[in-house]
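A.,

Following up on our hallway conversation. Structure tokens first:
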């Protein structure tokens, strides 16, 4: 049974990840893919899955997702990245919530990140809550170019089950993605008048390491967990 829900996905060269993403939300009445210039088979895969495809030049993470949501045919939207998919438990939780009378206008759920072949269950890799399911009359994406989020009017519900995130296939691709993110974030902060001080440069990575590796048990995720947190410390 389909539900009056639009699955909204922004893509660019996502042919490897997209099929699993779309298959995990086959109960949505609409699949909307907003693509910013894929050169692989992303568009063909989306069309084969019954998606409505819109081409839109890249606007930045927040503006691109905001644009995509405005194009959806249903007010309830589930926004996923192409490298994310619903776990069976989360899939069932969303179906049950929307099949009746939803208790909230927006929902968040934990995201579990897969890094270097291992699902991270501690540190900064989990639970990594994400707000991705919302009624667009009550919420919208912020226009931030990086680390975008959804602003919601009213309380937010929390669903059980994990949003599974294939964060990187290789260390090289992960570092390349993080380097792009930190450059965008640095430019955004400078534009807002922020300037780094010596104490922040020195102590921010140290505090982050203690918080996530020690206090939040990141050491239990083995070598992938250590590398993941070390990169996060360097990013900070």
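Then the amino acids I'd put at each of the 236 positions:
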């Amino acid at each position: 049974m389909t539900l009056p829900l639009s699955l909204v996905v922004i893509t660019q060269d996502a042919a490897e990840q997209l099929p699993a993403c779309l298959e995990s939300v086959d109960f949505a009445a609409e699949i909307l893919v907003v693509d910013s210039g894929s050169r692989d088979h992303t568009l063909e895969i989306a069309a084969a899955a019954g998606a409505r495809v819109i081409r839109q030049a890249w606007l930045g993470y927040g503006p691109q997702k905001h644009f995509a949501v405005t194009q959806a045919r249903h007010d309830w939207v589930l926004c996923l990245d192409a490298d994310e998919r619903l776990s069976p438990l989360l899939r069932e939780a969303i179906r049950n919530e929307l099949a009746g009378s939803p208790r909230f206008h927006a929902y968040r759920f934990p995201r579990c990140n897969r890094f270097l072949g291992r699902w991270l269950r501690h540190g900064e890799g989990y639970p990594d809550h994400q707000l991705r399911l919302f009624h667009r009359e009550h919420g919208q994406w912020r226009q931030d170019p990086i680390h975008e989020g959804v602003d919601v009017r009213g309380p937010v519900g929390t669903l059980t089950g994990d949003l599974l995130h294939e964060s990187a296939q290789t260390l090289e691709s992960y570092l390349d993605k993080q380097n792009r993110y930190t450059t965008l974030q640095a430019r955004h902060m400078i534009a807002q008048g922020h300037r780094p001080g010596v104490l922040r440069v020195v102590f921010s990575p140290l505090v982050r390491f203690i918080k996530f590796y020690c206090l939040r048990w990141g050491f239990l995720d083995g070598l992938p967990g250590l590398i993941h947190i070390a990169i996060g410390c360097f990013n900070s």
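The chain is about 35% helix and 25% strand. Curious whether your intuition agrees with the design.

B.
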